[in-house]
Amino acid sequence: MKLYxxxxxxxxxxxxxxxxxxxxxxxEVTVDLFTGEQYQPAYAGINPNNMVPMIEDGDLxxxxxxxxxxxxxxxxxxxxxxxxxxxRAKVNEIMDWLNTxxxxxxxxxxxxxxxxxxxxxxxxxxxAATLEFGLQNSKRWLQILNDHWIGPHKQYLCGxxxxxxxxxxxxxxxxxxxxxxxxxxxxxxxxxxxNMKKLPTWPKVNEIFYGLVDSVKGQQFQAV
Length: 224
Prior knowledge:
Blueprint: E1 2-5, H1 12-21, E2 27-30, H2 41-44, E3 54-57, E4 60-63, H3 65-76, H4 85-115, H5 124-150, H6 164-173, H7 187-197, H8 202-205, H9 207-215
Parallel strand pairs: 1-2
Antiparallel strand pairs: 1-3, 3-4
Helix pairs in contact: 1-3, 1-6, 4-5, 4-6, 5-7
């Protein structure tokens, strides 16, 4: 099995973490997003989305981080993707919520326009409006994540056992660390992230990601 990825990619990180924690034999292929390798014919020819991650498993090519996590968990029979229909539905629910609600504002209207020139808006006025919109909506989603999805008693997103939703969500939420977001107003989110960071392979898998965090310490950001 082969994983096309980039170690800083927010959607590659959860897949790499799940693979590392479960010792799944996978050959990693780095697609250099910072030089535009994803647009070159060699990769674009097998993934016209021009994005990572993607896995190859025999004749199967699979994109989308959420789908890859579900496939891998089923492939190894992991309890992190429960077989019980109702438990599995709750995992699917929070993963969809993270992908369609939270990440849209958090990443594309708050974090990414400040980090990547190609996602910055065309005028200062448009940039400021985007960040303000993203900031207010990110606060709303973080509050829902804190109060509704996690709450004061659960250790993880779907209860007291880790699921693939936690792998997926932790990578997306920690994107905020790049722009130095302060999660102190969201104690349940912070506690949950601390639980995820206790995973044995978290430091190694996220080593290059934290290199990115360090590299922008001198920049000023608008953040939660």
